[in-house]
Amino acid sequence: MELQNALWTEKYRPSDFSEIKGQKEIVKRVKAFVEQQNLPHLLFTGPAGVGKTSLSLVIAKKLFKDAWHQNFLELNASDERGIDVVRNKVKDFARTRAIGNVPFKIIYLDECDALTREAQQALRRTMENYTQTCRFILSANYSSKIIEPIQSRCVVFRFKQLDKKDIFAIIEKVAENEKIKIDEAAKDALYEISEGDCRKLENILQSSSAIADHITEDLVHSMASIAKPKEIREVLELALSNKFIEARNKLLDLMLNYGLAGIDIIKQIQKEILDLSTDNKSKMILIEKCGEIEFRMTEGSDEFVQLEALLSQFVLVGSK
Description:
By secondary structure, the protein is an alpha/beta fold. The chain has helices at residues 2-11, 24-36, 52-64, 68-71, 83-94, 117-129, 148-152, 164-178, 184-194, 198-211, 217-223, 229-240, 244-258, 262-273, 280-298, 303-319, and strands at residues 42-45, 72-76, 105-110, 134-140, 155-158, 181-182, 214-215.
């Protein structure tokens, strides 16, 4: 299934600037660079699955046409994060001239915030020395993990999560091409679960379409291993109504039925707190408790004990 998902994501990867969703201003500026064949070093930052790699590939295809494979080197820095990668692979590719009319090659370093500081310092020198024959496109989830000298050598573009209309446009395109039917409620569920991550969206869609041609909200939640929001809300309302044992049992059933870990369900609880019929002060107290419980879980505490402790806080707030 993982292989199928990877192939499906590649199938829907954009091949033109007009196909990049949700990054209109970035695409406009990058397109101008490509048309002038005057590309600076670029740094793409932002969350996963929003088009950083896709835009890099579109740049290469538009610049080099059919010869883009020979003039484009893609490396994933999270796999190869040591200084030897920069000294060997990157330098070997950068020191040779490009094939065709474009005077430079492109090296795309994905997840370069995973590079060690020593590797980043070596990369800084490489970017300086091979400016005549090579341009770098760096991709990172967190720009703060990239050293300042590299940031100052790049034009920085900050990608944002995809909006609801962009996610819906992708869903409709996939549904039309794959000849599957997707309910409106399922579309909303896909948007909520994907959180603006197109790659995650396509993986869930691929998994769901393997089960049925008609994708419903229930199918989406089961494939994503996420409880329905209304079921989480029922648990919280039971706790607020001073029905601690019932709330505890229902939460345990949800975790077992959906195969949820404590860290997964705490995030769903935090989202549902905002929609509870209680005053704002109580909501703030409960959100603070969620943060405390999540921290305890990440430190290694027993998740069932911590979730029971959280439900007890709901009961105490409800009893006031």
